[in-house]
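>> Question from a student workshop board

For tomorrow's exercise we were told to take the sequence and the ligand below, predict the bound structure, and bring the output to class. My setup keeps failing. Could a helper post the expected result so I can at least see what it should look like? The ligand is pyridoxal-5'-phosphate.
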Amino acid sequence: MRTFPKSLQNKLASRDEADALRKLPAPNSRIDFSSNDYLGFSKSEEIFNASHNYLVKAGINSNGATGSRLISGNHKLYKDTENAIANFHKAESALIFNSGYDANLGLFSSVPQKGDIVLYDEYIHASIRDGMRLSMAKNYKFGHNDIVDLERLLKKAEIENRDREIYIVTESVFSMDGDTPDLLAMVHLAEKYNARMIVDEAHALGVFGENGEGLLQSLALENRVFARIITFGKGLGCHGAAIVGSLQLTQYLVNFARSFIYTTALPPHSLATILTAYSYLEQDKNSRQSLKKIIDFFTAEVKRLQLHSFIYSESAIHCAVVKGNAKVKKVAFSLQQNGFDVKPILSPTVPEGEERLRFCLHAYTTQQQVTAVLQLLSIHLSL
Ligand SMILES: Cc1ncc(COP(=O)(O)O)c(C=O)c1O
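>> Workshop helper replied:
Here is what the output should look like for this input. Compare the format with yours to find the bug.
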């Protein structure tokens, strides 16, 4: 057999040297501080049984979609689920994609056209970056959550680009920091400079809003943005994603978003789970209240223990910066040895010098678990 290409071997070796070689972790039974299952919906027997019963009652017994949505895969559940999502998110239309990655890839590769300008937060998710790389539009990054820097770029873009579209892209909760931009100020800027806002709400669904609708809706800004990306693999505990916006936008995506067009559709049971999980967002207020309580408790404990390396966050994601891949891996390993599933986030996933421990909180996290893990962290950081 021929050997693996030398250039690829070298890339793996340099990852290893930088202490940044990625490996798939084995399943474990540690206390969960790493999953995105913020409300515990992924383990809900009620949701599991209700989705199953829904399928049985509707007489749907197929295992797969059988084709892409434009060919044979557009089964009835799509319409019901998309209508329910559009209603829930107070949008004209919703279009389901197979994942958040696919949604961002499709949106950013097809919507911004040659000559358009995309202004994006420097910490934007990899799926948005990958989408932008497939587009002919020009992309410029602004400093993380930095409104002043964004306005500087908007002024330049306005001069450079009189008749073309300008898009502003951000996340309502940043996946690697857990923090949030000043969305109201951004919407004002977008309106002032005639730009269009696109907001990825992946980590806000289920966490913010009266019924977990996300941050934009909790601020009543949903009608002032061009598109929202909602993902189901996090707070909703299942899988898939949707882009919500105008009917024209979803019509456009059906025609031009290649990650939508050229792939097999989701199976009916995925859609039944999404539909059921949405109904639980409205029914099950307890989970969201428990999550909110544990977030507040975590913040109070960070303060009490004077853990100054934490990035300010009101979301379910809390990060302590521990510089250097070797150090952050060492601390994470020790927390893991003590039964806490806390993951290190290494460079190059985050910039060098900003490596961190990422604590994801859940409706089922207890106060004792929070105190225990933070006390242990405090000891490690003082060593
Ligand atoms: C901000 C953000 N957008 C999109 C995605 C991709 O979503 P999915 O996991 O459904 O592909 C993620 C997940 O990592 C994310 O954090």
